[in-house]
Amino acid sequence: MTLLPTPVPPEVTFQGPRLRAARIQRDLTVEELARRADLTTHHVYQLERGVHAGPRSTTLARLAQILHVSTDYLLGLTDRPAPPEAPHA
Questions:
Q1: pLDDT tens-digit readout, 39-58
Q2: How do residues 28-37 score in pLDDT, each as one tens digit?
Q3: How many domains does the chain have?
Q4: For position 61, which CATH number holds?
Q5: Alpha helix locations (H) across 1-89?
Protein backbone atom coordinates (compact mmCIF):
# COMPACT_ATOMS: atom_id res chain seq x y z
CA MET A 1 0.00 0.00 0.00
CA THR A 2 1.41 3.36 -1.06
CA LEU A 3 0.59 6.41 1.01
CA LEU A 4 0.22 9.66 -0.84
CA PRO A 5 1.55 12.78 0.79
CA THR A 6 -1.05 14.98 2.39
CA PRO A 7 -1.44 18.16 0.38
CA VAL A 8 -0.23 21.24 2.18
CA PRO A 9 -2.95 23.89 2.40
CA PRO A 10 -2.13 27.24 0.83
CA GLU A 11 -0.77 29.92 3.09
CA VAL A 12 -3.74 31.75 4.54
CA THR A 13 -2.88 35.28 5.52
CA PHE A 14 -4.94 38.41 5.57
CA GLN A 15 -4.20 40.55 2.51
CA GLY A 16 -4.02 44.18 3.64
CA PRO A 17 -3.47 45.61 0.15
CA ARG A 18 -6.66 43.90 -1.00
CA LEU A 19 -8.57 45.50 1.87
CA ARG A 20 -7.23 48.91 0.85
CA ALA A 21 -8.00 48.36 -2.85
CA ALA A 22 -11.56 47.22 -2.07
CA ARG A 23 -12.08 50.22 0.22
CA ILE A 24 -10.90 52.62 -2.48
CA GLN A 25 -13.01 50.81 -5.09
CA ARG A 26 -16.09 51.40 -2.91
CA ASP A 27 -15.05 55.06 -2.53
CA LEU A 28 -14.76 54.80 1.26
CA THR A 29 -12.31 56.62 3.49
CA VAL A 30 -10.50 54.78 6.24
CA GLU A 31 -12.64 56.66 8.72
CA GLU A 32 -15.89 55.62 7.02
CA LEU A 33 -14.86 51.97 6.81
CA ALA A 34 -13.79 52.03 10.44
CA ARG A 35 -17.13 53.52 11.49
CA ARG A 36 -19.16 51.01 9.48
CA ALA A 37 -17.07 48.07 10.73
CA ASP A 38 -17.06 49.32 14.34
CA LEU A 39 -13.25 49.53 14.36
CA THR A 40 -10.81 52.31 15.10
CA THR A 41 -9.17 54.08 12.18
CA HIS A 42 -5.84 52.98 13.62
CA HIS A 43 -6.92 49.33 13.39
CA VAL A 44 -7.99 49.72 9.76
CA TYR A 45 -4.67 51.41 8.91
CA GLN A 46 -2.82 48.52 10.59
CA LEU A 47 -4.84 45.94 8.68
CA GLU A 48 -4.23 47.66 5.35
CA ARG A 49 -0.49 47.88 5.97
CA GLY A 50 -0.16 44.32 7.22
CA VAL A 51 1.03 45.46 10.64
CA HIS A 52 -1.83 43.62 12.31
CA ALA A 53 -1.83 39.83 11.87
CA GLY A 54 -5.42 39.85 10.69
CA PRO A 55 -8.90 40.47 11.97
CA ARG A 56 -11.09 38.13 13.98
CA SER A 57 -13.44 36.02 11.89
CA THR A 58 -16.44 38.20 12.75
CA THR A 59 -14.55 41.35 11.76
CA LEU A 60 -13.34 39.68 8.56
CA ALA A 61 -16.92 38.79 7.65
CA ARG A 62 -18.10 42.32 8.45
CA LEU A 63 -15.36 43.92 6.32
CA ALA A 64 -16.13 41.58 3.41
CA GLN A 65 -19.82 42.40 3.63
CA ILE A 66 -19.25 46.16 3.75
CA LEU A 67 -16.83 46.03 0.82
CA HIS A 68 -18.86 43.52 -1.22
CA VAL A 69 -15.96 41.08 -1.53
CA SER A 70 -15.52 37.53 -0.32
CA THR A 71 -13.62 36.59 2.81
CA ASP A 72 -11.58 34.23 0.62
CA TYR A 73 -10.45 37.22 -1.43
CA LEU A 74 -9.33 39.12 1.69
CA LEU A 75 -7.47 36.00 2.85
CA GLY A 76 -5.70 35.49 -0.48
CA LEU A 77 -7.44 32.19 -1.23
CA THR A 78 -8.91 33.49 -4.50
CA ASP A 79 -8.19 36.31 -6.89
CA ARG A 80 -11.89 36.86 -7.54
CA PRO A 81 -13.07 39.74 -5.34
CA ALA A 82 -16.79 39.14 -5.71
CA PRO A 83 -18.40 36.64 -3.38
CA PRO A 84 -20.04 33.68 -5.11
CA GLU A 85 -23.68 34.26 -5.96
CA ALA A 86 -26.28 32.37 -3.98
CA PRO A 87 -28.02 29.63 -5.97
CA HIS A 88 -31.43 30.60 -7.27
CA ALA A 89 -34.38 28.77 -5.76
A1: 999 999 999 998 877 899 99
A2: 999 999 999 9
A3: 1
A4: 1.10.260.40
A5: 16-25, 30-37, 41-49, 57-67, 71-74
